[in-house]
Amino acid sequence: MKLTFDIVTSTGSRLHEEALERIVIRRREAEFDPGSEVAILPLHGPLLMQTQACAARLTRDGLTQELAVGAGVLEVFRDCVTLVET
Predict the structure, then answer these.
(1) Which of 22, 39, 52, 75 has the smallest CB count inside 10 Å?
(2) CATH code at position 19
(3) Which pLDDT band holds residue 57 (cuts at 50, 70, 90)?
(4) What is the pTM of this model?
């Protein structure tokens, strides 16, 4: 199983990536340490969280690349990860 990652903005779709092995992104929630990160792997449970602007790390075929993302709300459902940038 692999992950898909979509970034959506108020003007439409900004990114669609498939076949990802891992996504690491920084959360923005008061009850966690500022700047703590969440690693999302295939078969991750459902999740809804706020994120902050950061360099997300996407891993595909064992290679990791960084991608600048804006703050927003991240949803994980099955193997689909969607970031709605605010």
Answers:
(1) 39
(2) 2.60.15.10
(3) very high
(4) 0.94
